[in-house]
Amino acid sequence: MRAKVGRAVLAFCRCEAGNTTLFGAMILAVTGLVGGLAADAGNAWIHRKQLQAAADSAALGAALYLPDLDKARAVALELVAQNLPSHRVHPVIRPEDVEFGIFDPETRTFTRPPAVNAGDVNAVRLVIQRTDAVGGRVPTYLVSLVGIDGWQIVQAATALRSPVISECGGSELLGELTDYLFVFTEAAGRAAWKGPSDNYVGDVALAGSDSRSMRLKQQFESAVTTIKSLQPTPGFENVDLSSLNGLDTRDGVNRTYVMNITRWDGRQVINIAGDAGDTFIFRWDSDPTTAHPEGEVRFHSGGGINPLGDLTPTNFVHLAGQINASGGGQVPSGLRKYTEDLPGTASGGGYLTGYWLTLGDSARAQNPAMSRARVIGGWFTSAKSFSITSSSAGIRVAPPGEGLLANCAPPRAAPRAQTALVN
Q1: Burial class (CB in 10 A: 0-12, 13-18, 19+), 180
Q2: Where are the alpha helices (DSSP H) in 144-261?
Q3: 47: how many CB neighbours lie within 10 A of its CB?
Q4: 5: pLDDT confidence band, cut at 50, 70 and 90?
Q5: Cβ-defined contacts of 263-266 (< 8 Å, 24+)
Q6: In 171-275, which ranges are continuous DSSP H helix?
Q7: Angle (nearest 5°) at CA 336 between 335 and 340
Q8: For 146-205, how does the pLDDT look when each residue is reduced to its tens digit (9 = 90+)?
Q9: Of 30, 246, 301, 328, which has the maximum CB count within 10 A?
């Protein structure tokens, strides 16, 4: 009897039946563990990127209002709440997390003096966090089984004081972008440019990984963030473009007008007169409730902004999603002295006056094919693809700050630092 039992035990130990099922279960468990770890790590990475983007936007927006520290802090907190609406109940930033101080460009260090003198402040630094103390940890799922019940994430951003916008037609807001007729920060390999040498005057910068391209991209993104953060001028919160025809702001005082253009008809010539130091910032958006500018700004049949009085194209800065143009009509009177410098014809079409910053459509970041577009100033875009036909034309208009500063009124404020992220 004992011999039979011994043989049975030995046979059971030698039996390999069911090994595949056991091995498969082990593989499944390991795969699930790795997948769970990847999911938790990916979730942490997404939250980190979201927090950093919110911190960058809030720092840049707050810097606009320096040296008004109370206003700057309030703007920072509100921008974080807008960019992270799900955290209004459990805020990820406290008022004391917004600090003001002095940034040294040489050492790239931020110093918060014991006694903050608003007049000396040139930078804002803020911290956004998901920790036990503020906002709560980012929850984990599988790794919680091994005792990690959440990720603690802390992101910071520092931004310099905003630009003076601008006694020289708004050009300081754009940095080196205005050195070019066209700047395409994303569309190096998806540019459909037909006949680029036919009728263009000015340099072109395409996306790349070199230091110049990266610098231009940062300046573009900084300018877009700054423009989005500006408060509209009272009375211009919701503007039909046609209502601006005949606008005359000449009063001998340099002023900045921020306008939300929500309705437009691109066939009309819009005559605007003003002082040489006036700046017009047009935000084109058919649906201001969305974060991305909506609607296609299309000028045609000779339509466009016509600068009169002491204005030039450099007095106009635009932020839009898409731009477009088509033919017909005549050159607006205030633009003729610029089109005369083009090697070919620029009569008729759609006139894009000033410096245009565009993002492409909200779905695919594309800009439609433009026919007979007349860019008088500059076009700077993060659209990932675009097309310009051979019948189009463009001329870079230099900011009045170049050369002898002949058209530049005395500065209203000093220093004249640019808004820029420095972290």
Answers
A1: middle
A2: 211-229
A3: 19
A4: low
A5: 263/239, 264/240, 264/297, 265/241, 265/303, 266/297, 266/298, 266/299, 266/300, 266/301, 266/303, 266/304, 266/325, 266/350
A6: 211-229
A7: 125
A8: 677 788 999 999 988 744 444 444 556 788 999 999 999 987 556 666 554 568 889 999
A9: 301
Average pLDDT, the chain: 81
DSSP 269-303: EEEEEE-TT-EEEEEE-S-TTSSS--SEEEE-TT-
Do 407 and 279 meet the contact criterion of CB atoms below 8 Å apart? no
Give the whole-angstrom CA distance, residue 1 versus residue 50.
72
Q: Is the pLDDT of residue 403 over 80?
A: no
d(C-alpha 241, C-alpha 261), whole Å: 6
Phi, psi for 156 (deg, rounded to 5): -130, 160
Structure-token pair, residue 397: 């208009």
| pLDDT over 70 percentage in the chain | 78
Domain ranges of the chain: 36-160, 171-396
Give the tokens for residue 29: 């468990």
